Structure formats: C-alpha cells, structure tokens
Amino acid sequence: MRAPGFVTRGQPAAIKAVRAMIVGQPPHALLLGGPASVGKTTLALDLAAGLLCLDPDPAARPCRACRSCRQIAGGNHPDLHRLAPEGPGGQVGIGQVRSLATELALLPVEGSRRIAIVESAHRLNEDAQNAMLKTLEEPPPGTTLILCVEEEDRMLPTVRSRCARLRLGPVGTRDIELILDERGLADPPTGARLARLASGRPGIAVALASAPEAVSIRSEIGRQLVDLLGARPAARLAAVRDLLARSAELARLIDLSLASPSADPPALEASPDERSPEAEVRAPAAERRRALAILLDVWRDLARDLALVSLGDARRLHDPRQLEEIQAASVGLREQAVALFLRRLDRAGEQLDANVSPELLADSLVLAWPRAEAAA
Ligand SMILES: [Zn+2]
Fold first, then answer.
1. How remote is the CA of residue 66 from the centroid of ligand 1, in Å?
2. Residue 184 CA, distance from chain mean position
3. For residue 54, how far is its CA from the centre of ligand 1 (angstroms)?
4. Overall number of domains in the chain
5. Are residues 148 and 21 part of one domain?
6. Distance 11 CA to ligand 1 centre (A)
7. DSSP state of 274
8. How many CB atoms lie within 10 A of CB 252?
9. Residues 105, 248: one domain?
10. Same domain membership, residue 244 and residue 157
11. Is residue 44 part of a domain?
C-alpha cells in the first residue's frame, strides 16, 4: 500500500502517525527508529515534505506539486536541513551539529517552519548529542528535528526523553517489488528475487538493483559458505579471509548505492580505481567491521534458508535459485546445529557492536559453522 503523496511504501502504522503530525501539531523532535535501509530517511523526507507543503488543505499534504514540494524533490528547499555521517569513521561530528543548531535558530526562509533530518543519529558521539540537547531543550518555534537511528539505546536518555518516537519494521516483499518496479530498477523476476534477498529492507533491494555485481558477489559468498559445510577446520580458516575480502567489496558496492539520494534511483559516482591509495593500504576499522556486518547478513539469510529447507518449507527462501544447493547441503546437517549457529550469529552481531575484532569473530564463526556429516 501507499498513501497519496508519500514515497514510503508499506509501514501503514507509521504513515498514519506521520499523517497525524502533518495535519495536527508536529513534535519538535522525532526519534525515528528501525533497521538500516528500512526506509527511515524516506519517511523523514515524507514528513518534511508534508510539513513544508504549501497546499491549503492539510489533508492533501504533501501535494508533490507546489513550489515547496518541488524544491524538496530537487533537494534544494532552503528550510530543509540534512545531516549525515562524514569521513572514513562515519561519525556525525560536533561541528556539524553546532552549525545545524545555528541554522535552526534563524527564521525560516520560505514559510513558518524549519525541518532538520539527521541520518544515522546513533553515530552521534556523546559530545555531539550534548550539543544537540540545547536545541532539543529550547527548540526554536516551528522547528522539527528528525533523528533517524538504528539503535535507540545509543542515544542519551536526555535526548530520547525529549523526542516523540516512531519505529519502522521490515517492509513486505510485495511492497519492495513495487518500489523496484516504480523506479524502473528491475524487471519483475529480478525484482522478486532482490526483494527476497533484501529481507524487508527496501534500501538494500534498491542498492542491489543498482549494482548487479553486488548480487553476484553475494551469491558467490553464499555458495562458498555452502561449500564450507563439508570442509575441515584448516580449510575453513584459510577460506575465511577471502570471505571477508569479498564481503568488503560487497559492502563497498552497497554503500556506494546507498550513499545516493534515497528518493531517486541511485547512480554510482566513483569507480573503485578512483579511491585514494591510502584507503587501499590500511582498511580502517570501520570498513573491516562493515565487511563482517555484511557477511553476517548473508550468513544469516543462508542459515535461515537451510533451516527452512530442513523443515520442508522451501517457499519462503531468500534465494530460491540456491534451492538445489541448499537441499543437497542440508542433507547431512542436524537441524539443531543450524538453530544453534543462528543464535551464535546474533551474538556475533552484538560482539561486533561491542568492538570485538571482526577477524576474530569471523574465525570463530567459520569454525562453529555446522559440519555436514554425510557424503563421501
Ligand atoms: Zn506541496
């Protein structure tokens, strides 16, 4: 489903709440939570468009036709401010927050409102959050600050307590297919496949559609993991470095696509050769962690598919093309072992957040990956 004027698809409860904010009294600050690439920025932009829209009928906002709506579509509305992580560390710096606070304190240019969207606000460090607190405590009239966060508990309690909250869950496969179709990003069979691979996150489907190499790298990683089910520990440890390297490549392709404006079909801007030589020499910690995070995603999808196949439920597979391989692989596996591994993956995600070395985690996971007992 899609509400008129909204770019967001799915998310009926959140759309209803955002509509009420547009028609009624919007909060000064909104904490918009949900997994990465689920559509937080897209919904934030829908809310911004609705609040800045000039249509006389509040119920018709955002109309997508007035001057204000067109400026938002063009990314140049003077009263819409956007803040996103910068630099290799992917932090939102205190300097960025301070200049945003200064801008918000000025009178609006066009109408009576100023809106700010902070993407990945969970990456604001404590100093930056404290700098933002002043704006939250005494919000300039007519301002709405939208903080998009993956992990709400990374926000200071003092920040959280001053925000209205809204949380986005996974988007249905059908809605993701429609998003890809509307943007002309994939033919129906490809769209259906990508929508499944995206596990409820439209941004991932869009990124995969814009970077076909990413889809093939993802499949290769999956195939390699299937092969490792039959491998001995030494072979597993030897293979895991390559898995991390491929995952880093996959992460780079996906992130390049995600970095483009979310409301438009993303275009790749930089080719791999244009990266600075320093970036090649030492992979920054953030990049290595991101590579493992991506590997965990692929691994989790594959392990779930293995579990589904052993339960005899092949209809909901992430990647139906792998069905035969997965069926063959699941023969020698104990169901229990796959379930245990899935739990282990979740714990690895938490350990990664707690700064455990990505290489160490990858080693321990590849050793814990179930061993197929059967076959010659
Ligand atoms: Zn409008």
1. 4
2. 21
3. 5
4. 2
5. yes
6. 22
7. G
8. 20
9. no
10. no
11. yes
DSSP H or E run through 166:
strand 164-167
Residuewise pLDDT in 10s, the chain (376 residues): 567 899 999 999 999 999 999 999 999 999 999 998 999 999 999 999 999 999 999 999 999 999 999 999 999 999 999 998 876 667 788 899 999 999 999 889 888 899 999 999 988 888 999 999 989 999 999 999 999 999 898 899 999 999 999 999 999 999 999 999 999 999 999 999 999 999 899 999 999 999 989 999 999 999 999 999 999 999 999 999 999 999 999 999 988 877 654 433 333 333 344 444 444 445 788 889 999 999 999 999 999 999 888 888 777 788 777 788 888 888 888 888 999 999 999 999 989 988 899 999 999 999 999 998 754 3
Residues 262 and 137 in one domain: no
Q: Ligand 1 center to residue 142 CA distance, Å?
A: 18
33 Cα to the center of ligand 1, angstroms: 26
Output the pTM of the full model: 0.81
Distance 90 CA to ligand 1 centre (A): 33
Q: Are residues 162 and 16 in the same domain?
A: yes
Residues 251 and 352 in one domain: yes
The boundaries of the domain holding residue 121 are 12-167
Distance from residue 62's CA to the centre of ligand 1 (Å): 5
Place of tokens 């814990």: 368
Of 167, 182, 198, the residue that ends a domain is 167
Q: How far is the CA of 70 from the centre of ligand 1 (A)?
A: 7
Ligand 1 centre distance from Cα of residue 265 (Å): 22
Measure 113 CA to ligand 1 centroid, in angstroms.
14
Co-location of 264 and 161 in the same domain: no
**CATH number of the domain bearing residue 29:** 3.40.50.300
Domain membership of residue 312 (yes or no) is: yes
Please give the structure tokens belonging to residue 49: 């468009």
Boundary of a domain, candidates 109, 132, 167: 167
Q: Which amino acid is at 361?
A: L
**Rounded distance from Cα 48 to ligand 1 centre (Å):** 11
DSSP state, 171? P
**How far does residue 100's CA lie from ligand 1's centre (Å)?**
24
Compute, in angstroms, the gap from residue 366 CA to the centroid of ligand 1: 53
Task: Tell me 338's DSSP state.
Answer: H
Cα 243 to chain center, whole Å? 21
Any domain includes 30? yes
What span, in angstroms and rounded, lies between the C-alpha atoms of 25 and 28?
A: 9
3-state secondary structure of 354: coil
Residue 1 inside a domain? The answer is no
